[in-house]
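A protein record pairs a chain with a discrete description of its three-dimensional fold. The following entry can be read in just this way:
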Amino acid sequence: MSRTRLRFLVGCSLALGLVSKRLLKKITTKEKKITPNKQNLKKLYLGKWQFSDPNNELEYIIEITDNLNLKVNNTPFQVTIIALSQDKLILQDLYGYHLTFYYHLDGVTHFYDEANDQIYNLLPYKKTPKD
């Protein structure tokens, strides 16, 4: 093997190594998940919804405010934040029961009430003339 051929092969090998390293770095950077900060996570759960209780056939309005406070039928409901993530918000009431709100791409879609052992589907709140 001649020297020029050897130099050419070593040069190509080095160039290929640098290019592949750069491409690998670019790909892994894109794949890293962006972890939202706590303030952005809070925004996922803000809103006002309505739901029906199948046990008593009553309609309820539930609202999560800026500070992740909870209102049920416009009455403040004292809760403590237990967990906050991209897919769920867990609140604890005064009696120690958990309310778990689930977030999906469509927004907050349902919540689980541990006290009643019941899952409630949430619908966007529709203002009525008497509100």
